[in-house]
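RETRY 2/3 - previous attempt timed out on the joint model. Re-submitting the same 680-residue input unchanged.
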Amino acid sequence: MKLAVIPGDGIGPEVVREGLKVLQGVVPTAEFTEYDLGAARWHRTGELLPDSVLRELREHDAILLGAVGDPTVPSGILERGLLLRLRFELDHHVNLRPARLYPGVAGPLAGDKAVDLVVLREGTEGPYAGNGGLLRKDTPHEIATEVSLNTYFGVERVVRDAFERAARRPRKHLTLVHKTNVLTHAGQLWSRVVEEVSMEYLDVTVAYCHIDAAMIYLVTDPARFDVVVTDNLFGDIFTDLAAAVSGGIGLAASGNLDVSRTNPSMFEPVHGSAPDIAGTGTADPTATVLSIALLLDHQGLPEAARRVEAAVAFDLATRQSGSVSRTTAIGDRLAALASS
Amino acid sequence: MKLAVIPGDGIGPEVVREGLKVLQGVVPTAEFTEYDLGAARWHRTGELLPDSVLRELREHDAILLGAVGDPTVPSGILERGLLLRLRFELDHHVNLRPARLYPGVAGPLAGDKAVDLVVLREGTEGPYAGNGGLLRKDTPHEIATEVSLNTYFGVERVVRDAFERAARRPRKHLTLVHKTNVLTHAGQLWSRVVEEVSMEYLDVTVAYCHIDAAMIYLVTDPARFDVVVTDNLFGDIFTDLAAAVSGGIGLAASGNLDVSRTNPSMFEPVHGSAPDIAGTGTADPTATVLSIALLLDHQGLPEAARRVEAAVAFDLATRQSGSVSRTTAIGDRLAALASS
Ligand SMILES: CC(C)[C@H](C(=O)O)[C@@H](O)C(=O)O
Ligand SMILES: CC(C)[C@H](C(=O)O)[C@@H](O)C(=O)O
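RETRY 2/3 succeeded.
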């Protein structure tokens, strides 16, 4: 397995180091090549994602990204020029984001509210297409547009993968999250596709939920969700709240998948570069390690993936509440557990 | 005060009756005219909002709406044809939605997390403009677009009102919620307007928060928000979660304001018509009563508004936990408290 690694900025390199430790434990033959991308490189050279680097990234089996960004980079630069560019260039149409409240983890909700869901967020179109503009900029007559582009092609492939995954889960339940009553054009397309594809997966039950109502359910009854499929922007919002109710983005993993396997998929913790704690050795690498599990699954190594997840579950269940674990200590523990 | 009343469907008429009871207690001279709009009328006549009715509505000082809808009306019909049409025709550019966790109310969050914020959601543009379309409908080459339209005119007036309100609150803090790092065109406009208007309100502190991060903060640290200003769609999502963490949409009030007072403003509970409990006499009219308080404020009767709010606060703090209060009993109590 040839892996491209983008450690990035802030705590990125720290959590990536532990993730690789765990990966090497379960796949000793994995090879890594590091790529220097992110805020630091941009500050130094003005470069975001040189074409030559993109070409090299394509030659790998998968990509692991830590986190990029620091507060001195203007908003939008790294997002458009690096993170979203990677997703779009590498056709990462399924943004896979599981959310699970592990035993031993204190969530923000009162009572014991089980969370065990997986979101398939469309990753290459919708409001993220970058389509829109400004007219009469910087005048009192300015108009700004943002165009959400939704294609049958793009919606069908993520919906189909969502049904595939739902069919393999015990509950076999799929929820479309959208705002079909207001965004009626895109809503019609999404609804039609879900209805069509559902005909091929008769054992999967299907539900629909408006994005606003979904926010309420995530804090009052998260167990109603099993597999969730949604558009790029609603997915961004839904997955942050889903992460919050399952213990925080510090534990949230994600995979940016090209399900067709034409391009390497990319795995990254959902959290950012957390400049405030960078260098203190206290960043929690668990989200990165769980992203490694997604990577192993995608690379056809489900047994290794389950071992990594089991290691995380054991570690979270046995952590002393209130005790601070150092980044490297957690990595060492998880690597030992996963490879034992 | 001449009030147009749209009781609507399901529990709408039940909660409106109690709201009017409270209003009559504090403003005995208020006059009401009922308008029959909603799912029932649509089923009977196919009509949503006849022009003649719209003309009559305009002749009133304010509008009170209960809730419209039932599960047999296809999604989008009442939304586009009635609810959103009212907001757009009557230029309800400030959708005002306070969220407050009252003492005595059990929220879904662990621990005691104070919530006391007010959202100003833009109400007449953004992704709700209805702009978009379908190409190659019902084919495998279908494309659906949704265009978010944002004007300086539209953004400035809601941002200005948000600063006005922030300046009158003890904390004097305003947060712009958006997704400026991805929706860069609309994001630039919103950011510029907030920066510009902030120059006129030097005692108001200003923060920015991405909509996805805002979801996390609402469940981990809702006290960071005081006044929130945001676009139509983000506001829809933010306010449902804000309502959830302050005890549920059963308590959430809203005002659809034309701040210029050219058209009557409209007040409504955020909850829907709840057909499952309609007719059982158990709907909680509190959200409607709190919407009456917003109405009184808007009509220049702040003392009456404070009395209604104080009545609600007292009632919520003294309700027996677990005991079911009947709709009319709550209304009677609140009317007596507010007018005493
Ligand atoms: C950084 C940003 C562009 C990104 C997104 O909006 O997709 C992030 O919020 C995420 O969820 O991965
Ligand atoms: C019913 C629907 C059109 C409406 C909206 O999206 O604005 C509702 O969710 C609300 O928040 O008032």
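Chain A touches chain B through 65 residues (CB under 8 Å). Closing ticket.
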